[in-house]
Amino acid sequence: MFELFLRKVRKYEIRMRKAVTSERHGNFHSVFKGSGLEYDDLRLYQYGDDVRAIDWNTSAKGHGTFVKIFKEDKEQTAFFMLDVSASQKVGEANKLKLDLAKEICSVLALSAIQEATRVGLLCFSDKNERYIRPSDGMKHGYGLISELYKLLPESTGTNIPEAILVALNLLKRRSLIFLISDFIDVNYQHNLKALARKHDLIVIHLYDSREISLPRLGIIPVYDAEKQSTVWVNTSSGSYRERMSSQFEKRSRELRQLCHQNRADYLAINTNEDYVPALIHLFKVRQYGKGSALS
Fold first, then answer.
1. Which residues contact 51 (CB under 8 A, 6 or more apart)?
2. CA 96 distance to own-chain centroid
3. 33 Cβ contact partners less than 8 Å away, ≥ 6 residues apart
4. What are φ and ψ of residue 105, in 5° steps?
5. Is the dihedral of CA 22, 26, 29, 31 positive or negative?
6. Which residues contact 81 (CB under 8 A, 6 or more apart)?
7. Does the predicted model carry a pTM greater than 0.70?
8. At 53, is the pLDDT very low, low, confident or very high (cuts 50, 70, 90)?
9. Among 4, 79, 117, 269, fewest CB within 10 Å belongs to which?
């Protein structure tokens, strides 16, 4: 089974690489240019500079708009933070949010490792489920993908703010961080801001269509995997369906705004859709150096 998984990951990675490098601008390496950069100095803003490099604290003093100058760090790092809590086990058979999250993480890790980028991983629920120290080389990359594929989470809960604190303590140098989750949690906003300030952050928000609109099945039992309890809901009720949809929209909107305000990239991915075009679009946006909220 792992061989089939790996074959699929390789196919998707090649598909992305071809799509990105077929453009006249840049190359695939530029996708990871946000990693491996270390703050060095300040200079006045010039037309064409990346707005994400603006030092707003210095600029606010009224002496001009300043941008941060970064020097390249040869030991570039791409770090993956993957939510493996029970709420990720939603979706069709063999196409759960968790399955998709593992695939996306593996595809991106393979891409990064082939660009001589050090790759690390933190899988979390409401505890640290698996940590792999950043390193380079194909052997390390395939080992990370294998560990990710085999992972069976021990806990059902979610604690995004604690996972972010762990990452902030682990990563001393500026890194490219992929935070992959359904973001069904609370009180993580402050820590996410800190993560975006210190690192180059890409937020990948996974969701399933059934979280927005359940089929009209009447009164059915719905099992909450994280709380490990069952409640009965009327899926045909207009008020229930509206509340469910509005909660999702509110959560998504607030997360998107939070990322935009803190110059982090935001990408929403539906488990029922092909995620490769969305990743390709993200990579092309990063080639141009435009921080963006994507959907």
1. 263, 291
2. 16
3. 286
4. -60, -45
5. negative
6. 122, 124, 163, 164, 167, 177, 178, 179, 180, 181
7. yes
8. confident
9. 4
The domain ranges of the chain are 2-27+75-294, 37-71
* Residue 190: strand, helix, or coil: helix
pLDDT at residue 133, as a whole number: 96
Residue with tokens 């194909």: 138
Selected residue with higher pLDDT from 34 and 133: 133
What the block records as the tokens of 119 is 């790759």
Q: How confident is the model over 73-125, as pLDDT tens digits?
A: 556 799 999 999 988 887 776 678 999 999 999 999 999 998 878 999 999 99
When computed from its CA atoms, the radius of gyration of the chain, rounded to whole angstroms, is 20
Q: How far apart are CA 80 and CA 203, in angstroms?
A: 10
Side-chain-side CA neighbours of 191 within 13 Å: the count stands at 16
Q: Where are the alpha helices (DSSP H) in 151-237?
A: 160-170, 189-198
Give me the pLDDT at residue 245, please: 78
pLDDT at 292: 46
Residues 6+ apart with CB under 8 A from 37: 70, 71, 72, 73, 174, 200
- Is 153 strand, coil or helix? coil
137 alpha-carbon distance from chain centroid = 22
Please tell me the CATH code under which domain 2-27+75-294 is placed: 3.40.50.410
What whole-number distance in Å separates Cα of residue 249 and Cα of residue 19?
31
Of 276, 265, 278, the residue nearest 33 (C-alpha): 265
